[in-house]
Every structure is written in C-alpha cells, then in structure tokens.
Amino acid sequence: DGRRLLHLPTGLRDLTDLAYGAQRDGSTARYLYALDGARAATDGGGLYRLDATFAKGTVQVQATRIATLDKPTAMALGSDGSLYVTILGTARSDSDQPSGQLLRFPPGL
Fold this sequence. Notes:
Order of helices and strands: EEEEEEE
Mean pLDDT: 86
Structural class: mainly beta
Number of strands: 7
Radius of gyration: 16 Å
Low-confidence stretches: none
Shape: globular
Number of helices: 0
Strand content: over 45%
C-alpha cells in the first residue's frame, strides 16, 4: 500500500547502493553494505558496513567505513562472496584517460 515500514538514519550523505554479503566465518549471518556517493565531498564517499545497534529500546544503524572511495556508483556480490564495486573517480585535468574503476573486496569485511 506504499506505507514506509522502517526509517533508520545512517549518517551517510548520498546512498547509491545496498547489498548483503556473507560473514568471513562462514556463518549464515549476513552483513549489510552501503555505498555513499558523497557527491559534494569526494573524500567522503566510501564503502560502509551498516550494523544494527540497540539503544533505549530502539533499533539504530551504525555505519562503519571500510574504504574511502571516489564517487562509488554500484556494487555486486560474486559467487565467492567477494564484493565488486564500481567508482566514477575524478578525471585528472592533464590526462585523457578514463577515471572509472572496478574494485574487488574480499568476503566478510
């Protein structure tokens, strides 16, 4: 019916993607990852793990930065649990080389 079921502030600026990934210990529990594009501050973008915390009887989200990234755009999980992230990057003014990159992170960060 279009009603919002949950609203949890993350403290992040420009969420561009979310994905669940397996924990390193092989358990069935999953981590929730988020990309923050932080378009207004290129040093603020990154890959984050979002962890549920409980305070005063309510659920909250704690964002933990895993890596600083220059304008991340999307991510996907590989069959081995690796996390693949694309970034736009910032083009250098003295180069005509593309600034986009594909990055791989190991499972269970």
